[in-house]
């Protein structure tokens, strides 16, 4: 089967309008690099797969999974249809700007030691999506970022703002621990080397875990802010004003608690052997408390 330069994987789950806009943005930049698009669909009931087949016949493959497998397992379904040297995981609530594909692919072509690359991610209001670049969670970063939120008070402190790299300009290219799954560009051979996404994760932290595995193999991970995408963050999870009414309470609760469950899983998988048992148990106690707080908040506030 013919090789292409880039395979773009856009996981779909009841985001028909967002997915349409995402694919329209890709349609506008088809001349920048030779790419194929694969859309794994996690059992959408809003007509997303049919819309793609009807309105975007150039999309190589729509994988109708039939049920919601989550982010990791859903994206992994695309691995059997990939013909690209590079693979881009792109959220359906993202829109790609001119030159983003061209310049990021060019960067990887000329930096053989880079295993994954991210770009600047901009929210609809023009602000930076801080999750575009992240440090791995440690007990200290968990304390300062999640619980005490000291990085909001001291956003440029090297001591307190490690998670979002607040002490480094968002306009500066630099090496990071982790990228966001909204735009995560890597090499097919790197994915094969590390085993793609860990399917123990249902939603959240699977991008962080993938980056952990990539770095563990000696590859660099780079934040490259010369180009950007727009990210309508949280739309697929019912977090925006426009989508809150479309996602029922049960789904909202599952999404919000999945974030904490993923955090706990990451601690057990990647950090457990690095710290004393007492500290690990303290961290897990904190995640249990956070889970309870979030559940109460979703039930009361929606």
Describe, in plain words, how this protein is organized in 3D:
With 302 residues, the chain is α/β, with parallel strands linked by helices. It folds into 2 domains: 4-135 and 176-236, Alpha-Beta Complex (Spore Coat Polysaccharide Biosynthesis Protein SpsA, Chain A); 248-302. The chain contains 10 helices and 11 strands. The protein has helices at 16-27, 48-55, 71-76, 100-110, 139-147, 150-153, 188-194, 206-216, 249-271, 277-301, and strands at residues 4-9, 35-41, 61-64, 84-90, 94-96, 114-122, 133-134, 174-175, 178-179, 183-187, 220-231. The strands form 2 sheets. Strands 1, 2, 3, 4, 5, 6, 8, 10 and 11 form a 9-stranded mixed β-sheet that branches. β2 (35-41), α2 and β3 form a beta-alpha-beta unit. α1 (16-27) packs parallel to α2 (48-55) and α9 runs antiparallel to α10 (277-301). It starts with a strand and ends with a helix.
Tally of alpha and pi helices: 10
* Backbone shape: globular
Say which CATH homologous superfamily of the largest domain is assigned. Spore Coat Polysaccharide Biosynthesis Protein SpsA, Chain A
Assembly annotation? single chain
Major beta sheet summary: 9 strands, mixed
Strands, total number:
11
CATH architecture annotation name of the largest domain: Alpha-Beta Complex
Report, as a whole number of angstroms, the end-to-end distance.
48 Å
Evaluate the radius of gyration.
19 Å
Going by helix content, strand content and strand pairing, the class is alpha/beta
Mean pLDDT: 92
The CATH class designation of the largest domain is Alpha Beta
Which sequence of SSEs, written as H and E, runs from N to C?
Answer: EHEHEHEEHEEHHEEEHHEHH
Could you tell me the strand content as a percent range? 15-25%
**Which residues sit in consecutive blocks of at least 5 with pLDDT less than 50?**
none
Give the fraction of residues assigned to helices.
Answer: 25-40%
